[in-house]
Structure formats: C-alpha cells, structure tokens
Design brief:
7-stranded mixed sheet, alpha/beta, about 240 residues, about 30% helix
C-alpha cells in the first residue's frame, strides 16, 4: 500500500525567519561571511575577476566598453565582493542585503577600486525589484535561501533588469550528494543545489548560460563552487 504521507519538497524546509536569525548571530566580518574560512577570500575574488575578464573578452559589447556603468551586488553581506571585485570593474555598485547590520558595513567598506557604492537596499531578494537597469547583476552565496519557485521568479526579474549586453552572474556551492540531490542545511536554513537543478531553473526563468566554470584554488574539503554568466534567452 502506498504511503498516505505526501512528499514534502526539500526546499519547503527553508525558513526565512530561521535564516535571518542565523545570519544575525554571525559577526559582520569576512570570517563570518565565509563560514570561518576568511583565507579563501583572496582566491575567490581573483577567480571572479578572472571570470569577468574572460567573459568580456569572449563576448565583447560596445555598449559595455570600459567599466560597467552600474552593477548590483545581491545578498552582499558586508560588501566583501562589492569592495574587492565590483568596485574594480564598475562605476557604481548598488547593494541588496536583508541583514541590516551587514548592510550598514557596506558604506564603510574600503573599496579596492575606483567604483563607488550607490543605493543600499535592506530587503530580501524575494521582494526586491530593481528601479534601474544594470550592466551586471551579481549573486554569490545567497540563493540557497530561496525556494525553487522564489529563485525562478527572482531570476526572471533579473532578466528584465539587466541591460542589453549585460550579464547576470551567479556563484554558488554545488551539492556533492551521491544521489545527485539537493541538500538542506538546518544550520542556516538553506539548500545547496546540484548543477543540474541550477540549469533547469535558469531555463525556466528564461535565461541561458553564456559561460560557466568551476572556481579553482579552494581547499579540497570544501564544496565545489561554480560560477555562471547568464543572459535572457531572447537576446541571444
């Protein structure tokens, strides 16, 4: 006899309240943002800059010659990527971050490049809607807090807000589950997705991968990290 208990989707376990409680308990430091591995920050940022350089070289656009005019760092935390990556390649970087104590740190972040911090939106990605068009929409280590449905809707909005010739970049951990399944983390109430799941959600959101690669140089015991550059399918 079949079980009468319905199968609950893994991402249904995600609780925004639990996630915010967790992140509010984390110190507003690089170590806090990186799960106690601040030593990977430099390798991570170098990998991101190299990826952007290759992306622009292989997919040139006259409308994006030179630096990006405006970018947005979504789920920015204390602005680690804004300061160390995006300020080097963008004139202005807006920030979306749901944890207020992290968002407050962004304005005081020491920027490595000539770019400046624009608007800081203290809100969740699920409800954030862009007021302007962006040349670059950056998402790193934050999308696991969205359910599949929320992520698909969010990515669809990103596709509507990215400039012609611009990119949506996603950099996230990948599940290494032996059954090729997503994995739920009770500690921070997030889901680590498989590469196959990401690709399916991108397609459902009307986005297409224009470049992707694995981040190199991280300790072997950490989860693999993949970076994707996406554009709306209609523009390709």
């Amino acid at each position: 006899m079949a079980s009468s208990n319905p199968v609950v989707p893994l991402d249904a376990q995600i609780s925004q309240a639990d996630a915010l409680t967790y992140w509010n308990s984390v110190p507003a430091t690089a170590s806090g943002m990186l799960g106690g591995y601040p030593n990977i920050s430099r390798v991570d940022m170098r990998g991101s800059l190299n990826f952007l350089e290759k992306l622009r070289r292989l997919h040139p656009s006259s409308s994006l010659a030179g630096s990006f005019a405006r970018a947005v760092d979504c789920g920015a935390g204390i602005g680690r990527v804004t300061a160390g990556v995006l300020s080097k390649v963008c004139d202005v970087v807006d920030v979306v971050e749901p944890v207020e104590k992290f968002a407050k740190e962004v304005h005081d972040a020491k920027l490595a490049g000539k770019g400046t911090v624009g608007e800081v939106f203290v809100t969740e990605l699920q409800v954030w809607e862009a007021r302007v068009k962006y040349d670059l929409v950056w998402n790193q280590w934050c999308l696991g807090h969205l359910t599949d449905e929320e992520l698909c809707c969010y990515l669809g909005r990103c596709g509507n807000t990215v400039q012609e010739g611009g990119w949506i970049v996603i950099k996230e951990n990948l599940s290494t589950d032996p059954m090729a399944k997503d994995v739920f983390d009770e500690v921070d109430s997030s889901v680590t997705r498989t590469d196959a799941k990401f690709r399916r959600l991108f397609e459902e959101a009307g986005l297409k991968i224009v470049r992707t690669e694995i981040q190199n140089g991280f300790p072997k015991h950490l989860l693999p990290v993949r970076i994707y550059a996406l554009q709306p399918q209609a523009r390709l």
